[in-house]
């Protein structure tokens, strides 16, 4: 059965305003297969649903992880292929999680060095104290 006529529909301009993604990016996502099929009005205007907005939110989280566009598109393809791809989807997300955790560790170490240096420079502003480097 088709989606309810009472379900909210959003123009590409409204989606741009809600998500911060440009219309160019939204069209590109659709063209490369990152977006599922977007319904069109009788005049051909894209009509996004709340489900589309949820998907774009998820894609934004994937982008924030540093996942490649190719992997995001692959994930979207797997979703469209159906339930039998759950294992492969999970593997892709688990690999991404490992990469994110590794980057968090690297950034935590870098932050500790910055904190140390900032503390050293803060000591320099105290009369009689000397900062190094």
TrEMBL record:
Keywords of the record, alphabetical order, are: DNA-binding
Can you give the residue ranges of the HTH merR-type domain? 9-78
Q: Which SUPFAM superfamilies match?
A: Putative DNA-binding domain
In alphabetical order, the GO MF annotations are: DNA binding; DNA-binding transcription factor activity
Which Pfam family, an example, fits this chain?
A: MerR_1
Protein name (record): MerR family transcriptional regulator
Record the organism. Streptomyces venezuelae
Q: What is the lineage of its organism?
A: Bacteria, Bacillati, Actinomycetota, Actinomycetes, Kitasatosporales
């Amino acid at each position: 059965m088709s989606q309810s006529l009472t379900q909210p529909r959003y123009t590409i301009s409204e989606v741009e305003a809600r998500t911060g993604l440009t219309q160019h990016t939204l069209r590109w996502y659709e063209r490369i297969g990152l977006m599922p099929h977007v319904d069109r009005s009788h005049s051909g205007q894209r009509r996004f649903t709340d489900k589309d907005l949820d998907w774009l939110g998820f894609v934004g989280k994937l982008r924030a992880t540093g996942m490649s566009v190719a992997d995001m598109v692959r994930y979207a393809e797997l979703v469209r292929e159906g339930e039998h791809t759950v294992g492969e989807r999970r593997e892709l997300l688990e690999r991404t999680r490992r990469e994110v955790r590794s980057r968090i560790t690297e950034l935590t170490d870098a932050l500790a060095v910055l904190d140390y240096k900032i503390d050293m420079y803060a000591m320099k502003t105290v009369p009689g104290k000397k900062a190094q480097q």
